[in-house]
Amino acid sequence: MRYRMLGRTGLRVSEAFLGTMTFGEDWGWGAPVEECRKILTAYAEAGGNVIDTANRYTEGASERIVGELLGADRDHFVVATKYTLTMDGTDPNASGNHRKNLVRSLEASLERLRTDHVDVLWVHIWDPHTPIEETMRALDDVVRAGKALYVGISDAPAWVVAQANTIAAFRGRTPFAAIQVPYSLVKRDIERELLPMADAFGLSVAAWSPLAGGVLSGRFTRGAAAPRTSRGVEVPAHELAVARTLDAVADELGAGSAQVALAWTRAGNPRIHPIIGVRDAAQLTDNLAALRLSLPEDALARLNEASAIDLGFPSEFSAATTDFVYGPVGRRVDGRRP
């Protein structure tokens, strides 16, 4: 396992994060404590150091299990949790990104995690009812209090993140160091706005559901499983077509479909860290093999073509009008990345 900096901070984080939504059986499909111990041990032995959880995962059981398993080794890991989601549906202030819910949620998370601080606190989802100025000030306060060391935001529009970090820059507050978003061969829409924004602001990208709920694992294309998700939703034909192209590429490379899918998420952008969530240690070991897999250019081209999306306006319009805007000499100008 190699390490990168989290955003523009000096925090070293491993190439792949361990997702713990599967820790605990409270939702009826997760892993028991002893299997969680095996998963965490296998991840740590591979060099992984980022544990990603949330207050709502398995109704708090995930945080409790993580806290129990880390024990005296807690400081060896980058412990990340989230707030926003309600833990009490009868209380209108028990959800959202406002200061009251942040303080309440974080204190409860620290107790479940058995620690006095988290290394990364994520805003779990954009709350359009709370001014982003309030959220950034409240987050800065918990950082200054030492209860969180870094902050990030999950599942939010690019313009919200850009606005938040601009406010932080001008007011001397803690900026977001990373975003957490869905990204896979069948879910590439973050390439339109969120990934360019992350590049511009130097943000790390934690990619959740990199296997698209099992669609890219071979589960529906190699076995006898009906093409329906765990929620009973039929897998779209386009996604199955992408998965079959993935299977063919994987067979040619002598690798598993899941390994190639995970390797793809990392191939195009060094800022991207796939979040690997599993139900047993054997599955984790198989998935981690993706970190040693380098995809040939022709394999990448086939996968990109099979899963291509329309970038839409303004990206496509900008590309189509290059000569009109810059003239013939524009083709001889070497551009720069943010």
From TrEMBL:
<dbReference type="InterPro" id="IPR050523">
    <property type="entry name" value="AKR_Detox_Biosynth"/>
</dbReference>
<protein>
    <submittedName>
        <fullName>Aldo/keto reductase</fullName>
    </submittedName>
</protein>
<feature type="domain" description="NADP-dependent oxidoreductase">
    <location>
        <begin position="18"/>
        <end position="306"/>
    </location>
</feature>
<dbReference type="InterPro" id="IPR023210">
    <property type="entry name" value="NADP_OxRdtase_dom"/>
</dbReference>
<dbReference type="InterPro" id="IPR036812">
    <property type="entry name" value="NAD(P)_OxRdtase_dom_sf"/>
</dbReference>
<dbReference type="Pfam" id="PF00248">
    <property type="entry name" value="Aldo_ket_red"/>
</dbReference>
<keyword id="KW-0560">Oxidoreductase</keyword>
